[in-house]
Amino acid sequence: MKVAVVGLGLIGGSFALALKARGLATTLVGVEANAQNAAVALQRGIVESILPLSEAIADADLIALAVPVDVIPQMAVKILNRVAPHQIVIDMGSTKEELCEIISLHPSRARFVATHPMWGTEFSGPQAATVDSFSGRSVVICEKERSDAAAVATVEELYRALGMSVLEMNAEQHDLHAAYVSHISHITSFILSTTVLEKEREEEAIFNLAGGGFDSTVRLAKSSAKTWIPIFMQNKYNILDVLREYIHQLNLFRKALERDDTEALNDIITRANDIRKVLQK
Amino acid sequence: MKVAVVGLGLIGGSFALALKARGLATTLVGVEANAQNAAVALQRGIVESILPLSEAIADADLIALAVPVDVIPQMAVKILNRVAPHQIVIDMGSTKEELCEIISLHPSRARFVATHPMWGTEFSGPQAATVDSFSGRSVVICEKERSDAAAVATVEELYRALGMSVLEMNAEQHDLHAAYVSHISHITSFILSTTVLEKEREEEAIFNLAGGGFDSTVRLAKSSAKTWIPIFMQNKYNILDVLREYIHQLNLFRKALERDDTEALNDIITRANDIRKVLQK
Questions:
Q1: Which of A253, B123, B266, B272 is geometrically suited to a Cys-Cys bond with B128, CB 3.0 to 4.6 A?
Q2: Nearest-CA residue of chain A relative to B254?
Q3: ipTM of the complex
């Protein structure tokens, strides 16, 4: 299978490395607007060559879109405008409603498979790409019924070959769940970071005392604005909904602490502990 | 050195295992009120025997208090009431002001060294104790000038032998920093968990979609109420201060998102990214 990866950042780069390591691509070409990222991708052997979009996609069996989500919809349309009936286009973005609406009536809609591999790190760029990504994680395929069945089968097989389990969901459900299990975590980490940096001017103290759980909770605060602002904007209403609920529950905790209401604190923490069941099953 | 560990949970158990593995204790006895924990501790070889407090401490060169922080001050006093001039008592709790005040005028205050090894996990009990804990982390020693110099030297040497770096701080500074780098992280995780569990009734979805950063951000939500409520109560004013600032900054983020103010979002995220410098130096 000839593969073209559009966008050689963390996700596109890791996808290419994983395909290469498992011998799943006969050729691997990339499209990358950022010259520095393009150079790193070539240097690391992530792709064989960097080509302009039209050349890269011309000969590809599979075209994978791994650019920021604010760019995906327009790029999806441009690629679908040129796609031949045997070609498959996927995206790997973290939001789906906007994309699925934009391409919904495109005459080549069936060639597109909307996917979201649930993997990422706080790092970005091709230098952060790793070969053992994706494996053991889930990938969501949205609006499967709008895609050609054989194209879906090919894409699912590919993700399974990378060690992923495949889930189906409509775009609306996807964006709601993604707000809860991914997007909000980034916001709580960003704000934990700004809060601590704002208050703790003695940065040495933060570093030296880390080990009490701060590191893992704040890890995602290293994530890139370029990736995340478009995600927050595209999933704005779901995220605002989660964020309001989160702030409400924080205020309940704060009030319980102010009142020395250890019974209420115990109730909150005991309910929070239930996440054990969810994450360990 | 003959060591008595009072409280064989995660911290006390791990401390005992680490001492044993490095041959730093000639005898290791434990005090544990919970019969099940006592049985696990013996079964795992964490201590050689479980004794009543008075027997356990009678013969010990070092007595380490690793019980919840609401129990530490009274127990510290009871132990200091019986301590001989060659014995050393330490605590390993996550708050220090209350303890240091309670023991401040005790005639044997100099035999006590107040310590906080900055290590922990979301698990509790002797079954969660691990031998490779502490190493590579910091330990804070508070109010060092109130302790006997030779006792401090012995305790520092012991922690260094476990691979820890030693910091000094007064109790007030300690509790303030601990609120920022440890206590608040637990609260944000607890509340992330309750928020997601409240809204996401389809628990299957949470589990399947995890991988987008949720796991690490919510990890601490598995932590025990029994450990954490006393910490929150003892460090109430510092924690309320951090919590108010955190909620304030979350509201700034929420408003920026509501207004589509990508410039403000970019400013927040860019500031949050500065945590990279602090955590990587």
A1: B123
A2: A240
A3: 0.92
Q: Which helix (H) or strand (E) holds A37?
A: helix A35-43
- Give the pLDDT band of residue B85 (cuts 50, 70, 90): very high
Range of the domain at B134: 2-169
Q: What is the pLDDT of residue A194?
A: 94
CB pairs under 8 A between A and B: 319
What's this model's pTM, rounded to 2 decimal places?
0.92
The answer to whether B44 touches B126, Cβ cutoff 8 Å, is yes
Q: Looking at residue A205, what is its pLDDT? A: 67
Residues A139 and A270 in one domain: no
Task: Pick A191's closest partner by Cβ from B180, B228, B250.
Answer: B250
Name residues 124-153 of chain B within 8 A of A (Cβ).
137-138, 140
* Residues B84 and B192 placed together within one structural domain of the fold: no
A196 contact residues in B (CB cutoff 8 A): 180-181, 184, 275
Burial of B265 (0-12, 13-18, 19+ CB in 10 A): buried
Which of A103, A137, A169 is the last residue in one of the domains? A169
Residue-wise pLDDT tens digits, B199-232: 776 666 666 777 778 888 999 999 999 999 999 9
| B181 to A210: CB separation less than 8 angstroms, yes or no | yes
Nearest to B138 among A184, A208, A229 (CB): A208
Residue B105 pLDDT exceeds 50: yes
Partner residue facing A272 (CB), from B119, B221, B271: B221
Average pLDDT, chain B: 94
Q: Do A269 and B228 touch (CB under 8 A)?
A: yes
A256 CB within 8 Å of a chain B CB: no
User: Could you write out the DSSP letters of every residue in B91-155?
Assistant: E--S--HHHHHHHTT-TTGGGEEEEEE----S--SGGG--TT-STTSEEEEESGGGS-HHHHHHH
